[in-house]
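Render this sequence as a predicted structure.
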Amino acid sequence: MSTPVLLPQIGESMVEATIGLWLKRPGESIRRFEPLVQIETEKVITEVPSPLEGVVREIVAREGDTVKIGEPIALIEEDSAASGEPAQAPAAAAHAPEPGGPLPAAFPPGATAAQPGVTPAPAPGAAAAPAGPLAPAAASDTPTPAPGGLFPSSPLPAAAAAPGAPMPLAARTAEAVAAYSPAVRRLAVEYGLDPRAVQGTGAGGRVTREDVVAHAERRRAADAPGPAEEEVVAPSPMRRAIAQRMLESVRGIPHAWMMVEADVTGLVRLRQAVRAEFQQREGFDLTYFPFFVKAVVEALRAQPSLNASWTDAGIVQHRRINLSIAVAAEDGLVVPVLRGADGMSVAGIARAVRVLAERARAGDLAPEEMRDGTFTVNNTGTLGSVVSMPIINAPQSGIVTLETIRTEPAVVGEGIAIRQRVHLCLSFDHRVADGLAAGRFMGQIRRVMEAYAPGDAVY
């Protein structure tokens, strides 16, 4: 009996995912919990394990398809030992197309996709094509691209005309191209490329979608008569996910913004006093960010209305303080969650944030490590920013930034003194909080930041 495998939900905000790479082919056996397919969800690429043991009967969702949660992606025939029924060998396994379904429209009528290692049966009365590498085609045998595709529109001959004759060029072309994933073939058609000309960088030299895009860009640059004034760069899956999330946040949340300025001269002196000892003890530098995170935690305790989310049923107040830490990576912004920060010292926060940041930049985060955040903190000051207006990380109600600390003259009492000052910026959901609650929250952060002084404990 064939059982459908449904796309599971691996994140609380996940509603759909993109099929990446199928790790099993039709006809192959699979064990329970063995990886079946790679999927791309928002900011994570992860593997989906098989929920049962048996034989892969059919691939329902093609590579590159976007599938909703709960929709079927494959059919698995359960093992006879597990289901109590006799196992049947899949009749069509040897001739099943590559995972992803039918060939693109660019393939001519009658063409068949040959699987690696499988020899298609010759037509009745026809001789099989000889094994071995493809013979080079004569100049007159070169196919002419059809409008909108790569290959001619005439049907392929069923078999070679005489025993020992080579396979026709059109059949050899379709057979070679069918070895690529549906997503790669689709992109190749869009860019007017032969995928065999693309250098693969995936596992085992596999050609990926990024390889096709990069090859197309290189070819366009080479064909350009001179320096191009502009170019179109295909966004990565992560960049597309970020764009979609940010657009949904701005459209769905009424953003309000507030900024306060804090005198952090005491904090600067405290860090200078403990920096060398901390470096020797921990093996990395002590920044201002863990002090800021500690201040945000205390402010959320004092003003819990900001530690909330808006829903159709009402405002959800979160009892735990799980801070989403914005980490800048090469492909975009990653937001792992620091849990239990309200029970940590400054040094403990520094260690935890460092580990999360390193794993985020290495792409080593599990989906559950980016779930359940209740409020977001961002260290935009490391980029030299002095004022910013961040976008809320939905469904949270706020995000606060630490900007660059500046050395400035300031009025102190009756005189002028050189002080260290910083801007703290907040974007908040105006449905959840008004200016009064936001002002109290920011005022509490400022009080904690201005209270740091030499002699304070960091452990």
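Summary. The chain is about 25% helix and 20% strand. The mean pLDDT is 80.
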